[in-house]
């Protein structure tokens, strides 16, 4: 493994991060488990950054990919593409957006980049509202709306971005308020901000912030924001790259926790829909999607193979009620982790919903983030046979727990026990 690590360092940029002091090579997986090149077996509670959504080596998906690859792998959007149209029809119907159009990309970054193009073109403005502690991708436009310094490597931007309060409930100037007062204060901040700027194109927001450590506002915040946005003609972009497809358990889309004033104008998705294949996309009302006044295509977005994978994966998810499983098993796991956290002084908060859970770590007796502890727990969990993620921003440090949505109760208990030992070890 050290030989491969040396080769990696020789040709891959330094800023491509690797987990673990001794990075592992994952060679294969099945269900909720993966194996590394040394033969070690792990329970996977991160799914390739929330991407292996249903299960590793899901037969229905691998069969669909194999059969489609045997027919044709690629044609581009310049030709009619039956698998693309069929998946677009299903996603448009599920999106909740009226008269929806769907454009496929190869990643969440590209999906958000496309959403920004649509919003700024439609509104004839390059001003964007984003949430503090947010993450929206690694392209030039998406790092410029990312409210997390650790993931925004340049201050140069094609956009003027203004950051809004509300994405983090338990830190910041409004943390002491009740949920209703928190929403009221964030809305007042938004109103004040709009009084100091010219026309704004859109607000982009993750219903639950992913890289930021699985933080979220009280339910209803974005519905309250929507009342203000609508008065100004500002579009709402819901970044569902991590929250979509039932992962939160309570809802199929994260925006549905904020549905009081209708669906978003634009919705972006990626990650889980392809179950590991490169699928992303944008859903928007026809009025917005069709507003581009120049030609555009996608060479690899909507590939017949990735569309076949997405359709098979979505069908499996719906037929097996994996959203319901995320709600049931995720609820049990959340309570188990909260019970563990109550006995570990380094745990400040256990939060999240469904199978999207965060454990925030601090130095015991303080409110100060402890990234060294998070790194140590990550290592200890791997030694114990469990893969998890980490995140956080603006002096926070969190462990991220996001297993495939087919997780069983027994596997949830096994993972929680490993995590308990890892947390207690540091």
What does this structure look like?
By secondary structure, the chain is of the alpha/beta class. The chain has 13 helices and 15 strands. Helix 7 runs parallel beside helix 8 (221-232) and helix 11 runs parallel beside helix 13. The mean pLDDT is 96.
What's the arrangement of secondary structure elements?
Elements: H1 2-11, E1 26-30, E2 33-36, E3 41-44, H2 47-50, H3 59-71, H4 82-95, E4 100-105, H5 108-123, E5 127-131, H6 140-143, E6 160-164, H7 179-194, E7 202-205, H8 221-232, E8 235-239, E9 266-269, E10 280-285, H9 286-289, H10 304-319, H11 322-342, E11 347-353, E12 356-361, H12 371-383, E13 386-387, E14 389-391, E15 398-401, H13 409-425
Parallel strand pairs: 3-13, 5-6, 5-7, 7-8, 8-9
Antiparallel strand pairs: 1-2, 2-3, 4-10, 9-10, 11-12, 12-15, 14-15
Helix pairs in contact: 3-10, 4-10, 7-8, 11-13, 12-13
Q: Structural class of the secondary elements?
A: alpha/beta
- Give me the side-by-side strand order of the main sheet: 4-10-9-8-7-5-6
Low-confidence segments, ≥5 residues, pLDDT <50? none
Radius of gyration: 21 Å
Using the alpha-carbon principal axes, give the shape. globular
Strand content: 15-25%
Number of strands: 15
Mean pLDDT across all amino acids: 96
User: Quick one: biggest sheet?
Assistant: 7 strands, mixed
Order of helices and strands: HEEEHHHEHEHEHEHEEEHHHEEHEEEH
Helix content: 25-40%
Provide key terms for this protein.
426 residues; alpha/beta; seven-stranded mixed beta sheet; four-stranded mixed beta sheet; 13 helices
């Amino acid at each position: 493994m050290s030989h491969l690590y040396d080769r990696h360092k020789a040709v891959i940029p330094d800023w491509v991060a690797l987990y673990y002091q001794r990075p592992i090579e994952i060679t294969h997986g099945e269900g909720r488990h993966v194996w590394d090149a040394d033969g070690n077996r792990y329970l996977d509670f991160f799914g390739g950054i929330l991407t292996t959504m249903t299960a590793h080596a899901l037969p229905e998906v691998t069969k669909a990919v194999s059969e489609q690859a045997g027919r044709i792998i690629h044609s581009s959007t310049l030709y009619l593409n039956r698998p693309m149209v069929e998946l677009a029809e299903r996603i448009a119907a599920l999106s909740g957006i009226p008269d929806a159009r769907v454009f496929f990309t190869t990643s969440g970054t590209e999906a958000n980049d496309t959403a920004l193009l649509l919003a700024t073109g439609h509104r004839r403005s390059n001003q964007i509202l984003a949430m503090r502690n947010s993450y929206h991708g690694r392209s030039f436009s998406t790092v410029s709306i990312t409210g997390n310094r650790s993931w925004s490597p340049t201050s140069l931007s094609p956009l003027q971005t203004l950051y809004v309060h509300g994405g983090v409930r338990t830190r910041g100037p409004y943390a002491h308020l009740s949920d209703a007062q928190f929403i009221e204060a964030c809305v007042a901040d938004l109103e004040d901000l709009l009084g100091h700027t010219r026309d704004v194109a859109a607000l982009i927001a993750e219903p639950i912030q992913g890289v930021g450590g699985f933080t979220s506002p009280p339910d209803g915040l974005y519905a309250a924001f929507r009342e203000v946005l609508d008065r100004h003609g500002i579009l709402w972009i819901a970044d569902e790259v991590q929250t979509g497809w039932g992962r939160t358990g309570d809802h199929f889309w994260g925006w549905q926790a904020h549905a009081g004033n209708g669906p978003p104008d634009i919705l972006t998705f990626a990650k889980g829909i392809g179950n590991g294949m490169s699928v992303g996309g944008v859903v928007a009302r026809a009025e917005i999607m069709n507003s581009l006044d120049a030609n555009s295509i996608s060479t690899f977005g909507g590939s017949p193979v990735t569309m076949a994978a997405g359709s098979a994966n979505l069908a499996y998810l719906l037929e097996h009620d994996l959203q319901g499983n995320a709600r049931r098993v995720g609820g049990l796991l959340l309570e188990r982790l909260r019970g563990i956290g109550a006995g570990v002084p380094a745990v400040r908060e256990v939060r999240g919903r469904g199978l999207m859970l965060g454990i925030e770590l601090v130095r015991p007796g303080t409110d100060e983030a402890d990234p060294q502890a998070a790194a140590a727990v990550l290592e200890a969990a791997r030694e114990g046979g469990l893969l998890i993620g980490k995140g956080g921003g603006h002096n926070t440090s969190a462990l991220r727990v996001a297993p495939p949505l087919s997780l069983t109760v027994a596997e949830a208990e096994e993972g929680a026990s490993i995590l308990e030992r890892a947390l207690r070890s540091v």
